[in-house]
Write a structure and sequence with these properties.
This protein has a single domain (6-230), classed as P-loop containing nucleotide triphosphate hydrolases (Rossmann fold). It contains nine helices and eleven strands. It has helices at residues 12-17, 38-51, 67-73, 78-83, 93-101, 103-106, 121-129, 134-155, 173-187, and strands at residues 6-7, 22-23, 27-32, 55-60, 85-88, 111-117, 158-164, 190-196, 202-209, 217-224, 227-230. The strands form two sheets. It has a nine-stranded mixed beta sheet with strand order 5-4-6-7-3-8-9-10-11, sandwiched between helices. A two-stranded antiparallel ribbon has the order 1-2. Bound molecules: adenosine-5'-triphosphate and magnesium ion (MG).
Length: 234
């Protein structure tokens, strides 16, 4: 089996900007508002990783992982691909902490990718319930990101986290969301911002950070039944 160095997204233009895709050994962040195809992009990477014969641990903190969506993206190769995607479903922030802390036990030989989708959703629930604990929870989020960055480097796998940001804040989140985003951005080696456009099927992806990047570069992506593809800027 050839040694993979990159996991492509299969969006031609985005892969070009990322010099081939997400690097093994690096921590990537995909962030953006609701329904900007963050999960779809992460799923697409898991499918491509499986296509190269490597396993993915998909940590679904939102409960949105859909086998139907996976089969649409899996190019008619669902059976083989599904075998290589292992699903974990923490239901509260404590369980997420447990899964993240014990990642090295899950990651046996043959893993290429870990996805955490969405890393901030259970954290948000916890903060909404216990606002007095927000400093402690921020510290915990920071600790998880530091550990994930270390795992990516030491295990030579790609780690991909997604995070949702909201354009309109409610009272509880107004103070915490910028803090969480700062924490996530601090640890990420690769940062991609997903933004909606006037056309609900077109998402603008901006690579804000990657190795040796001078300035952010954007491309348009089209979302449909088969997943995400490039959509040339006209
Ligand atoms: N089978 C499909 N065909 C066409 N569009 C789809 C299909 N499945 C999902 N979509 C669309 O893709 C868009 C992005 O979905 P996705 O779940 O990837 O977004 P997300 O950024 O992860 O959202 P969230 O912030 O809620 O987690 C949605 O607008 C959804 O309607
Ligand atoms: Mg999602």
């Amino acid at each position: 089996m050839a040694v993979v160095q990159k996991i492509p997204t299969n969006c031609k233009e985005l892969d070009k900007i990322l010099d081939g895709g997400f690097s093994l050994g690096e921590l990537g962040l995909i962030y953006g508002e609701a329904e900007t195809a963050k999960t779809t992009l992460a799923l697409q990477c898991a499918v491509n990783c499986a296509g190269m014969g490597y396993k993915t641990l998909f940590i679904d903190c939102d409960g949105t992982f859909s086998t139907r969506r996976l089969s649409q993206i899996a190019y008619g190769n669902f059976g083989k691909i599904a075998e290589l995607i292992i699903l974990a479903r923490p239901t509260d922030f404590k369980e997420q902490m447990f899964v993240v802390d014990n990642l090295t036990n899950y990651l046996t030989k043959g893993f290429g990718l870990v996805v955490i989708d969405t890393i901030t959703s259970l954290y948000r629930v916890e903060i909404a319930e216990k606002p007095e604990k927000r400093f402690q929870l921020n510290r915990e989020l920071n600790r998880q990101m530091a550990w994930l960055a270390q795992i990516a480097r030491t295990q030579k796998i790609a780690v991909l986290v997604t995070s949702q940001v909201r354009s309109v804040f409610d009272e509880v989140l107004v103070n915490i969301e910028p803090v969480a985003t700062r924490v996530l951005k601090f640890w990420a080696d690769i940062i991609i911002a997903m933004k909606p456009t006037e056309n609900p099927r077109i998402i603008k992806a901006t690579v804000e950070k990657k190795q040796k990047m001078v300035q952010p570069v954007s491309c348009n992506l089209k979302i449909d039944e088969t997943g995400l593809q490039e959509y040339p800027i006209r």
